[in-house]
Every structure is written in C-alpha cells, then in structure tokens.
Amino acid sequence: MAAISCHLSSVSSPDSVSLSSTSSLSRSAHTLRRFPSVAVSSPAIRRRISCQTVSSAPSSSVNGKVVPFHFVCACPKGYEPDARTIKRALKAGVSKIEITNDPKEAVKGADFVYSDVWASMGQKEEAEYRRQVFQGFQVNEELMELAGPKAYFMHCLPAERGVEVTNGVIEAPNSIVFPQAENRMHAQNAIMLHVLGL
C-alpha cells in the first residue's frame, strides 16, 4: 500500500474512538488524546484521516471494532489490498473504503497522512524495485499541502527519510511521529501487564 486516506464519519463520543488493525495500521484514535497538539476531544474535530503506507497491504488484517470512517488507499497498480482484507475492514466498522492509484487525490482534505517504509522486513531484496514502482507516492511537502494546513503526519518508524517521506515532512511541526512512538510503548506495556495477569 502506498497511500491511505481515511475519513472519520460520525463519532458520538471521542472517548470511544478506536482505530484498530495489525501491522503499521495498528493505532487507537483515543490514544491521540495523549498528543498535546491533537484535540481529539474537540467537537470540531474534522472527520478525515489520510495515510500513506506500503509494506503490509496484501497481508494486513483488521481486528476488533472501529469507529466508522472513510478509508482511501492510494497505491501503484498491483499493490492494492486484497479483497479479504477489505471485507474484514468493512466488517470491523470502516464505513467506506476507496482504492486509488493517485496519492494526490487520496490526501485531499485529510486530517492525518500516514506513511510506512516501502520495503519492510523480509522484503529488502525488493527495495530497489519498489523504489521505482512507488515513484510519486512519497509523502512530501507538496502532498501535505494538498492534505491541508490542519493535517498531521504519522509514521510507525523507523522511517527511510528521502524515500517514503521527506526530511522536511517528518520534522515539520504537524508531524506527530515521536508522540506516536511513545504511545506505542504505553500500549506494549499494557499488553505485557495483561499477559502477565497484573
């Protein structure tokens, strides 16, 4: 997957917001309250998220229940998420899913732009080939401008700067990649406590 755009639909209670899936998409929207720059509890929150990722589209699965939102994936032809993944996402609560080959169209008006590496672990032998295939899908300043001034940038890290995202985007004031990484630590701690029965 090269680009994903998600649009939140009606959210009755900001505290109940939860976006959930495996791999790089495994995030909880309610944890965004921890980000000082993101006002999830605000009634004026916009209803669109836009993300850019690559490595896990065909194999990623969606678990749990999610708040209804509009999800748009932009990727090169041949890298679209499979029908089973889309069906599971819809069943979990994603209200609308679009697949496009145009990242510029996918991010327009987005609240969040999400990126991942183009070649993940176990795919490094494909890295050079993927760099060619994914040309035009890099999250750069131009793409973020299309998303709008209120759009936040997210990445599950580590990032390959200059490949799937520019240095300028990842270091911009609207980049929340480091608070996002910190939230992951708290989530992992909670899982360990749960597994240990503490």
TrEMBL record:
EC number annotated for this UniProt entry: 2.1.3.3
PANTHER family xrefs: ORNITHINE CARBAMOYLTRANSFERASE, MITOCHONDRIAL, ORNITHINE TRANSCARBAMYLASE, MITOCHONDRIAL
UniProt record similarity statement: Belongs to the aspartate/ornithine carbamoyltransferase superfamily. OTCase family.
Superkingdom, natural source: Eukaryota
GO molecular function list: amino acid binding; ornithine carbamoyltransferase activity
Name of this chain's protein: ornithine carbamoyltransferase
Residues annotated as domain Aspartate/ornithine carbamoyltransferase Asp/Orn-binding: 66-194
GO biological process: citrulline biosynthetic process; L-arginine biosynthetic process via ornithine
Keyword set, alphabetical order: Transferase
One Pfam family in the UniProt entry: OTCace
Matches recorded under SUPFAM superfamilies: Aspartate/ornithine carbamoyltransferase
Keyword Transferase applies: yes
